[in-house]
Amino acid sequence: MKQNSSVTEFLLLGLTQDPLKQKMVFIIFLLFYTGTVVGNTLIIVTIKFSRTLGSPMYFFLFYLSFADSCFSTSTAPRLIVDAISKKSIISYNECITQVFALHLFGCMEIFVLILMAVDRYVAICKPLRYPVIMSHKACVILIVLAWIGSFIHSTAQIVLALRLPFCGPNLIDHYCCDLQPLLKLACMDTYMINLLLVSNSGAICSSSFVILIISYFVILHSLRNHSAEGRKKALSTCTSHIIVVILFFGPCIFIYARPPTTFPMDKMVAVFYTIGTPFLNPLIYTLRNAEVKNAMKKLWHVKLLTE
User: Fold this and answer.
1) What value, to the nearest 5°, has the Cα angle with vertex 111 and ends 191 and 41?
2) How far apart are CA 246 and CA 71, in angstroms?
3) Residue 77 has pLDDT above 90, yes or no
4) Neighbouring residues of 72: CB distance < 8 A, sequence distance ≥ 6
5) pLDDT of residue 69
6) Which residues are the signal sequence here (predicted)?
7) Alpha-carbon gap, residue 94 to 204, rounded angstroms
């Protein structure tokens, strides 16, 4: 990567510098990350091999779980290792790569959540046309477009990052590399770059959140015409989606859709959406979804019988 600075590496300060707290960080986030990978892998495998989870909703849930795993992997392993390391050093190229991965899979998660809302809207508001509108071919095209959009977004972040000159110091007051902490170290006026950042990441987060909330309001409003049983099932599914949307977008908007101001809670807010939400998503989607739980039981029951 072309480097526009004299700095070749950065020192991540992490969540804390206290030795005892660092050990706690190591244990807590190792458990969180393990739970994230195991939970999302379980959902991915269940959807992949289950014959009962072939609907578009589970097709999108497959990619949400994949994005969750990769999104958490872009930050959690380094946070865990750095918690027990004497010096948390990250090279310039590794730092830029982390920015790319963080935004690629984070943006992918946003787009998949939107696609899941579209799927629920069509299923509830246009049930007769659902098989035609949400055909397998249409779902594949939508996922491909989501990947392309995510790649374009993350590439834009890299372009902005590569424009930043670093002359020292090289201490990043964060547990991962992202544009906001990097902007503080740049030896140039970063007002315009921060404006571009807010208009890019901030606009994506804010506009997507508004679109999702409006879409779910329309969906919930249309449920008044459904039967009690159908209304109960739809409410259960939509409630899970709404919980995930609020948990993910709240912290994202707080971090990205604001002027270049630093708050003491920034790192903990970032932890919540980069590590906390990917951990909670499998719990939300399995505990509140009878179809997923039944499919898991059948799949692993068959697997145990065949061994």
Assistant:
1) 115
2) 17
3) yes
4) 33, 36, 37, 274, 275, 278, 279
5) 95
6) none
7) 25
Q: Are 300 and 256 in contact (CB under 8 A)?
A: no
Tokens for 146? 């989501």
Structure tokens at 172: 């990043």
Domains contained in the chain, CATH given: 9-306 (1.20.1070.10)
Mean pLDDT computed over every residue of the chain: 86
What residues does 89 pair with on adjacent strands? 11
> Which of 96-100, 185-189, 229-233 shows the lowest per-residue confidence on average (mean pLDDT)?
229-233
What's CA 213's distance to the chain center, in Å? 18
* CA angle, residues 250, 213, 178, in degrees to nearest 5: 30
Contact (Cβ atoms closer than 8 angstroms) between residue 176 and residue 75: yes
Residues 6+ apart with CB under 8 A from 221: none
Neighbouring CB atoms inside 10 A of 293's CB total 14
Provide the H-helix boundaries in 228-289: 228-256, 266-271, 277-287
Q: What is the mean pLDDT of residues 278-289?
A: 81
The pair of structure tokens assigned to 173 is: 């007051």
Q: How far from chain centre, in Å, is Cα 75?
A: 11
